[in-house]
Structure formats: structure tokens, C-alpha cells
Design goal:
By secondary structure, this protein is of the alpha/beta class. The protein has 17 helices and 18 strands. Helix content is 39%, strand content 20%. The strands form five sheets. A six-stranded mixed beta sheet has the order 4-3-2-5-6-7, with helices on both faces.
């Protein structure tokens, strides 16, 4: 028994090391994750829209992020700005040398419960919080300057210019939005790329789930693949201080050595997204839809000769976000998708389908003659108009139609839109948070493969030509023999 117990403990420790703890990969924990020295300032909204119990949840979030940091004068220094109509410097970067006293100071912060002057708070961070007098290491460019803004509403002052000034000064800004926050404001505040610097949670009760993200942000590991400090789209293969990129099964690595395509060989495709922007979608879910679009764009070999992408949003009206061919590479397409604003009105799917048929795949909208046409229609509810005629027309014109439904989408309408076989062109999920799973399936299905019937016809034609040539050759040989015999007779 004395031998068995240590052996079991050793097995448990090895298993924990292999699998990670609480779902966090082992390379992001413990001694493998010394956090890089940083000057970090939290800018926290405590306006009247933030209830006292919600502000307590914000403090828990701050504390959990701080707990993962190496706090100290030569490591990470932390400051906290509390703002509403006015700004209060709760904790300076120079104040706390020990993590325990810093956490205690955070627990003592009280909400101000007035207006929402987010721009003023960012200006305060520039002028004071990140100043040398308050403990910022301004003469050490190798020390990262980071601000995390947490807010739940629309600011009462301008943020765009002041946030731009902060970023120009080298401050990396993360924007965390809660509840009915204005997403446009978050994008104005945050650093690029926005996908990595803008986060949204439905309520303060779940803000704690962002803790892991920020633990990984501040994690300093020599393995670039482990930190995510690489450009690989799918798989990063570490090789010492460098790395190489690879692709998942079914994908091929593009010429750039970083991105992957499900469409091997760079198939020429004109792809148009038709996206429901009705009010039932809700702002937070619309952000997930944009990520879904970019997930599919990532699988394409975008170029003038291969894949082109267009985007239409519809609600009570139809709005072309950008036509086919306007953007020549993935990065520009994805940036345009992220900039798309939410229409938030009705659901006129039929009108949108008619626009697709009449306008989207025309040469004047960038479509290329002879190139396969693919449309992905995304909706979350019943159409307020008639869809059958436009959906039928699209399929008659040879468009490959995919229908993706979420939540209250009507199955019969999705089936009416989808191409045959319907089971391969129609998808549904009850929850917006799982649409990325549909995205994975679509990545391979949107590839336009050679028509096997066309290939078979070519093979038959080639065989027929070969047989005719052989028959003609035999006849020529027979004629040649007869001519030779006739020549011999004449000679005799």
C-alpha cells in the first residue's frame, strides 16, 4: 500500500501536467507562464447604470486578472481608474509593490454612481495614470503599456480622438463591453486588431469568464505557438524560437505559408453573403454573425483569379455592404465585415433574395462570367414577405444556395432557399454561440468541384475520337496496301 499511493499520486500529477488544469493548457500555467513586465491600468465605469452588486462583480474580475500577474516594481505594475461623471485615481502604478496589498485596495473601491464620461477617463489615463510621476516606466520602451476599459453604456462625451491619441502614444487598449453597451464605441476605443481587443459579455454576472483571456494576454512564454504570437491561421508548429504553419485535415496551406484553404487548387468562386440584420438578432449576436462570416472567408483563396466575396445585409430594406471583387484579399474583406453596422429593423428575406437575383451576380456588381455563383443566406426568424419566387429563380439561374438558420428561423423557409440536395445545403442551430460549428461544415461545402457528369462526357468524347482515329488509321493502312499491290502489278 505504501508503494501504491505514491505511484497513484505520480500518475495524477503527470495527467494534470499533460491535460492542463481547469481546461487551461499547461504551458499557460505556473512556472511556464511568467507574465511579461507591463504597466497595466484598469479604467472602470461605475456610472449609475452599474448597480452596486454588479460593481462587486467587476472587482472580482479585476482581482482574478491581478492574481495571475507577477506584481512588483520590476515586474507588472497595476493602476485602477474609477470613472462616472468625474474621474478618480483609485490606485497608481507606483503605489503597491505587493499583490496582497493591491488586491486589498481593489476590494475597497466604491462606485461613483453618476454619468458616463469615458473620453474624460481615457484622457486622465494619458495625462496622469501613465505618467512617470505616477509610476509608469516611460523611459523603458520594452515595458508594455496596457489599458483595459470596462463599460456598460454609451459615453456622454467623445472617445474616438482621445483613444486614438492614447494608442499613438503606445498604449495598447482592450475594450470590454457589458449588456447594452454601444459596440461602435468599443471599436473606437480599442487597438487593432479589433477581434483581439474588443470583448462583449451579456451581463456582469458572466464578466468573470474573460479572466482566462487576459491571463493568456499577459503570459510570456518563449514558445511563440503557445502565446499565440504567430500568424498561422490554423496550426502552429513550434521549432525553438521560431515556428512553421500547417493546416487541418481537408485544408491546404496557401502560398503565403500562413493561411489555409478548404478549396484546394484555388477554385474560382463568386460568393455572396446575405445576412439578416433584423432587430431580433440583437447587437451581441450580430458580432457573432460577423465572426461567422470571417471564419468562412478564412477558408477561401481570395484573389482576382480565384475566390471573390460580396456582402449584403437586410432588415426592412436591403443594403449592399460591398460588391464582389471590391476587396482583393482576406484581410481587407474581414476588416470591412468588422466595420459593418447593425441595421436592427424588420425581416424582408424575400426582398433580399430578389436583390441577390437581380443585382449581386451581375457583371456590374463584380461577378465574372462563367464562374460558379454561391450564396449563403443567414437568418434568425420568419420572413415578413414572400420568398418562394426569388428563391426558385436563384436556383434556376444555377446559384449554389446555402441556408443557415438560428433561433426562430423557419425550417420550411430554409428548405425553400436551399439548393438540392437540401440536406447538404440547409443548416440550423438554436444558439448563436454555436454557429461556428456550422461555419466549419460550410468551409468545405462551398468549394465548387468539377461536375463529374462533365468529366464523364469529356472522357466519352475522347474515347470516341480515339476510336475514330484508330478506324481511320486502319482504313489508311488498307488503302496503302491496295496502292502498293496496284503499283506492283503496273511494274510487272
Amino acid at each position: 500500500m505504501t508503494v501504491l499511493v505514491p505511484a497513484l499520486l505520480l500518475c495524477a500529477l503527470l495527467l494534470a501536467q499533460q491535460q492542463g488544469v481547469n481546461g487551461v493548457p499547461p504551458q499557460l500555467r505556473g512556472l511556464h507562464c511568467r507574465t511579461r513586465p507591463t504597466d497595466l491600468v484598469f479604467i472602470v465605469d461605475s456610472s449609475r447604470s452599474v448597480r452596486p452588486n454588479e460593481f462587486e462583480q467587476v472587482k472580482v474580475f479585476l482581482s482574478k486578472v491581478i492574481e495571475s500577474l507577477d506584481v512588483g516594481p520590476n515586474a507588472t505594475r497595476v493602476g485602477v481608474i474609477n470613472y462616472a461623471s468625474a474621474v478618480k485615481n483609485e490606485v497608481s502604478l507606483k503605489t503597491h509593490r505587493l499583490k496582497a496589498s493591491l488586491l486589498q485596495a481593489v476590494r475597497k473601491i466604491e462606485p461613483l454612481s453618476t454619468g458616463t464620461m469615458t473620453g474624460l477617463a481615457i484622457q486622465f489615463a494619458i495625462n496622469r495614470a501613465f505618467s512617470e510621476g505616477e509610476g509608469a516606466r516611460v523611459r523603458a520602451p520594452e515595458i508594455n503599456k496596457v489599458a483595459i476599459v470596462v463599460t456598460d453604456g454609451r459615453p456622454q462625451d467623445a472617445v474616438k480622438d482621445v483613444a486614438a491619441r492614447a494608442r499613438a502614444l503606445g498604449i495598447e487598449i482592450f475594450a470590454v463591453g457589458v449588456g447594452r453597451v454601444d459596440m461602435h464605441t468599443l471599436r473606437q476605443i480599442a487597438s487593432e486588431p479589433l477581434d483581439e481587443h474588443v470583448d462583449y459579455v451579456e451581463s456582469y454576472s458572466v464578466i468573470e469568464k474573460l479572466t482566462k483571456k487576459f491571463q493568456e494576454v499577459f503570459c510570456a512564454v518563449s514558445d511563440l505557438c503557445a502565446t499565440g504570437d504567430h500568424d498561422c491561421q490554423q496550426i502552429c508548429v513550434s521549432s525553438g524560437a521560431s515556428y512553421t504553419c500547417a493546416c487541418k485535415e481537408g485544408f491546404t496551406l496557401n502560398a503565403d505559408g500562413k493561411t489555409c484553404s478548404a478549396c484546394s487548387g484555388g477554385a474560382a468562386t463568386d460568393l455572396v453573403f446575405l445576412i439578416d440584420g433584423s432587430k431580433s438578432v440583437r447587437p451581441e449576436n450580430f458580432e457573432l454573425v460577423k465572426r461567422f462570416i470571417n471564419q468562412i472567408v478564412d477558408s477561401l483563396d481570395v484573389s482576382e483569379k480565384n475566390a471573390q466575396v460580396g456582402l449584403i445585409q437586410y432588415s426592412s430594406t436591403v443594403r449592399q455592404e460591398f460588391p464582389l471583387g471590391q476587396y482583393k484579399n482576406k484581410q481587407d474583406i474581414k476588416s470591412a465585415v468588422r466595420r459593418m453596422s447593425y441595421m436592427e429593423k424588420g425581416t424582408m428575406t424575400g426582398q433580399a433574395l430578389k436583390y441577390l437575383v437581380d443585382s449581386s451576380f451581375t457583371p456590374s456588381s463584380g461577378a465574372r462570367p462563367g464562374v460558379p455563383k454561391v450564396a449563403i443566406v443567414f437568418t434568425d426568424g420568419r420572413s415578413q414577405d414572400y420568398i418562394n419566387d426569388a428563391a426558385k429563380k436563384a436556383k434556376e439561374l444555377g446559384y449554389k444556395m446555402f441556408a443557415v438558420g438560428v433561433g426562430n428561423a423557419v425550417e420550411d423557409e430554409l428548405r425553400e432557399i436551399a439548393s438540392e440536395p437540401v440536406a447538404e445545403h440547409y443548416f440550423y442551430t438554436a444558439d448563436f454561440r454555436t454557429i461556428n460549428q456550422i461555419g466549419k461544415k460550410l468551409q468545405s461545402k462551398i468549394c465548387i468541384e468539377e461536375d463529374p457528369c462533365e468529366c464523364e462526357a469529356i472522357v466519352k468524347f475522347q474515347k470516341k475520337v480515339d476510336n475514330l482515329i484508330k478506324a481511320l488509321t486502319r482504313k489508311l493502312e488498307a488503302v496503302s496496301k491496295k496502292l502498293a499491290a496496284l503499283e506492283n502489278r503496273i511494274t510487272i
